[in-house]
């Protein structure tokens, strides 16, 4: 086909679309834009709206399935999710612009697509609230996410990156839990042993405890340590922070389950070949899109060594 005289402008693209360094871990982190406002406008429960966190997990799973087998681990908390690409991932020739924009828009599309499954009460039978929740069924405006791409040169910096996000989760969640207990807006979740449903209560909204204003609560918490906050929760509110859901305290790790990891490890050669070739026509059953059951959602500590020992094979695969 004849080229038009305007074709030359394509050359300008190369200046801004670089290829990410080979043989290094690519982490893409997406983060809700202005979610402070989004949470308020949609009456999110405080400090944690499990519906939103579950929806974030669902959206992340959608990303992992879409980009399988390039992403086999991710970590999410609050309004953010980090996706770890395998160091030899070769999707889109590791083009920075493609990777960052596709992962971010795939996540955002998932968040919108699955919204009703979590925020429409009739469809989310796992949550039982002790008083009617304010209607949040309908989106008031389209939520958006920003995305960034970071390269980590080795296993230990990658592990420290994930630890950093989990420490952030812990610090913010302890702060927010204490803050909203002080203001009387705290929501408590308990798992019903009989049917594993979550019972939602609002223990301080109708107590006689004097509720602090936002300013007063901020002042009360300034210069307090973690143990001060634990103490406030325990003595003033009879609340043991360790009994909060692990999902809130630790965030969520999504990985392939151990069998699936072993399966991939046993055929590293062909899977690596596939990743390099990016051939979607491959007949190899290993690269068939996995179903939801092949992934695991974990709310566990990733700061200590235990997780990394148990999931050693995962690191080998990364
Ligand atoms: P950004 O990321 O710079 O555009 O600004 P934000 O407002 O998204 O701030 P960010 O990402 O630092 O913090 C997340 C905000 O989202 C924070 O204000 C708390 C809110 N948020 C996230 N999840 C929940 C939730 O489950 N319940 C409530 N009430 N708020 C939440
Ligand atoms: Mg941000
Ligand atoms: Mg945000
Ligand atoms: Mg955030
Ligand atoms: Mg096109």
UniProtKB/TrEMBL annotation:
Catalytic activity: a 5'-end ribonucleotide-tRNA(His) + GTP + ATP + H2O = a 5'-end phospho-guanosine-ribonucleotide-tRNA(His) + AMP + 2 diphosphate + H(+)
InterPro entries: Thg1_C_dom (IPR025845), tRNAHis_GuaTrfase_cat (IPR024956), tRNAHis_GuaTrfase_Thg1 (IPR007537), tRNAHis_GuaTrfase_Thg1_sf (IPR038469)
Keyword terms, alphabetized: GTP-binding, Magnesium, Membrane, Metal-binding, Nucleotide-binding, Nucleotidyltransferase, Transferase, Transmembrane, Transmembrane helix, tRNA processing
Known cofactor(s): Mg(2+)
Domain Thg1 C-terminal: 157-183, 210-303
Annotated ranges, domain tRNAHis guanylyltransferase catalytic: 6-153
Chain ranges passing through the membrane: 96-115
Catalytic activity, EC: 2.7.7.79
Top-level taxon of origin: Eukaryota
Gene3D superfamilies: 3.30.70.3000
Function: Adds a GMP to the 5'-end of tRNA(His) after transcription and RNase P cleavage.
Family: Belongs to the tRNA(His) guanylyltransferase family.
Name under which the protein is recorded: tRNA(His) guanylyltransferase
């Amino acid at each position: 086909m004849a080229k038009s005289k305007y074709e030359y402008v394509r050359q300008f693209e190369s200046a801004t679309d670089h290829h990410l360094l080979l043989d290094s871990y690519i982490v893409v982190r997406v983060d809700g834009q202005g979610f402070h406002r989004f949470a308020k406008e949609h009456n999110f429960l405080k400090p944690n709206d499990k519906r939103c966190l579950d929806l974030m997990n669902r959206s992340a799973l959608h990303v992992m399935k879409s980009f399988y087998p390039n992403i086999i681990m991710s970590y999410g908390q609050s309004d953010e999710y980090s996706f770890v690409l395998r160091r030899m991932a070769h999707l889109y020739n590791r083009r920075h612009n493609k990777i960052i924009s596709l992962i971010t828009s795939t996540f955002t599309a998932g968040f919108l697509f699955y919204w009703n499954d979590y925020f429409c009460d009739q469809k989310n039978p796992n949550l039982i609230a002790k008083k009617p929740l304010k209607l949040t069924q309908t989106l008031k405006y389209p939520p958006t996410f920003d995305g960034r791409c970071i390269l980590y040169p080795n296993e230990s910096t990658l592990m420290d990156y994930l630890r950093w996000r989990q420490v952030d989760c812990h610090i913010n969640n302890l702060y927010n839990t204490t803050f909203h207990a002080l203001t009387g807006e705290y929501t408590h979740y308990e798992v019903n042993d009989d049917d594993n449903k979550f019972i939602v209560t609002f223990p301080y909204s109708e107590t006689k405890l004097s509720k602090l204003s936002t300013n007063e609560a901020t002042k009360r918490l300034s210069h307090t340590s973690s143990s001060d906050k634990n103490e406030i929760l325990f003595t003033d509110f009879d609340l043991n922070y360790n009994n909060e859901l692990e999902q809130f305290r630790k965030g969520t790790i999504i990985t392939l389950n151990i069998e699936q990891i072993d399966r991939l490890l046993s055929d590293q050669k062909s899977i690596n070949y596939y990743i390099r070739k990016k051939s979607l026509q491959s007949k190899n059953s290993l690269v068939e899109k996995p179903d939801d059951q092949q992934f695991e959602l974990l709310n566990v500590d990733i700061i200590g060594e235990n997780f990394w020992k148990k999931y050693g094979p995962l690191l080998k695969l990364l």
